[in-house]
Design brief:
This protein is of the alpha/beta class. The protein is built from 16 helices and 15 strands. It binds 6-O-phosphono-beta-D-glucopyranose. It comes from Eeniella nana (Yeast). Its EC number is 1.1.1.49.
Amino acid sequence: PFKENTVVVVFGASGDLATKKIFPALFGLFREKYLSKTTKIYGFARTQMSNEEFKGRIKGFFQTPTEESKKLVDQFLELCFYHSGQYDQAEGYEELTKSIEKFEAERGVKEPHRLFYLALPPGVFVPVAERVKKYCHPGDKGIARLVVEKPFGRDLNTAKLLQSKLAPLWKEDELFRIDHYLGKEMVKNLIPLRFANSFLSACWDSRYITSIQISFKEPFGTEGRGGYFDNIGIIRDVMQNHLLQVLTLLTMERPVSGEAESIRDEKVHLLKAVKPLNKDDVLVGQYTKSEDGKKPGYLDDKTVKPGSKCITYAAITLEICNERWEGVPIILRAGKALNEGKVDIRVQFKETKNGIFKHVARNELVIRVQPDEAMYMKMNTKIPGVSHSTTTTDLDLTYSSRYKKFYIPQAYESLIRDVLNDDHSSFVRDDELEISWSLFTPLLEYLEGPEGPTPVPYAYGSRGPSLLDDFMVENGYVFQD
Ligand code: BG6
């Protein structure tokens, strides 16, 4: 079910995020019949270009797996319009609203439903949010939703400042703070996995679990995005948001209901229980040239400040001080320019106490977020046949083989669909955002201050800093195959 005559406006429509992620996601929703043919979609940006030019730019990124879906591209593009305007002047917004109102009048819309997506750099974020509220909000006669993208500030103070400017204009239930990791299939699966399986609920605590690891690995460096990344670093880029969000869903208590606010309440409770991060429990690195010299080091990127100490790799341990998790080390690690691209969660269980086997591996539940969604549990079983010995094998749920018929949406598709359905459960609430910054700000201040460590070099294409394995072992993780 979808709403008819919805208006979607994407600000920053000529940028990378809109072109590569948001419009393809809207097309994906249309292709899968989650977006009505009566929707009207505007791209808004400063660049002057015609409708046709705009459509030409975006359609190259659409996914069309079947012949039938190829035919839908033109139908979808008929819903799309481009509108150019300055972000800080009234004119563009006024014209946009005139066009929206004309469309709604033609369709006889009584209660406008307008969704505004800000795919914008942080500098223009507030000016646009103010003007959208002033010129494009339908007021009491309809509903408006504002989707905002990170960065939501760069530390606690800037995040609070941003919030203090947005809050008087946009009510919390009108705002959707997107963290696209919350739209990934395996992340959406965490709540059902944890709370719909009694055997997992029974052992999901420090009595049985020895460590948890959430890791994010990318096989490429900044590749020309250095100017942006250099002011941010890997902790702000993916850890304070994406990995921390995954962590809260993995470790929070059971929400009192499946409602968005119940879920977000539990996430907040969990975040409040995280101990202040210890600066000694951190390993930071920066990539250098690949061993064969073919891939550039971070400092070779011309858009990066010479001599920058920007962190492109970080591993940190954190501890949750509540009855369930006391004493269980939780390792978050994230890095660019590594040997592979992979995001996974590893929950390692204690050894069995019984001494009848010489050596059995620890059980480990692995949830692979990407690529190739999968879940597997490392189990010990008897080697089949005459042997009495045990071996470790995987109890394996790989989605591509188990769920052949299911379509797994892209993260942005899944989240925009939630916005259209007014479901806030996979979006970050204001208090959640504030606590996540309170947690990371002191650590970032230390790392970026005069006492901060020099990042350990690691080669482009390697597993990360060579100290990593020791760091992991010190934090309770046991390597095993
Ligand atoms: C973004 C970061 O939020 O997430 C990027 O800014 C990163 O640096 C990206 O590459 C990773 O997202 P995904 O979905 O490709 O894992």
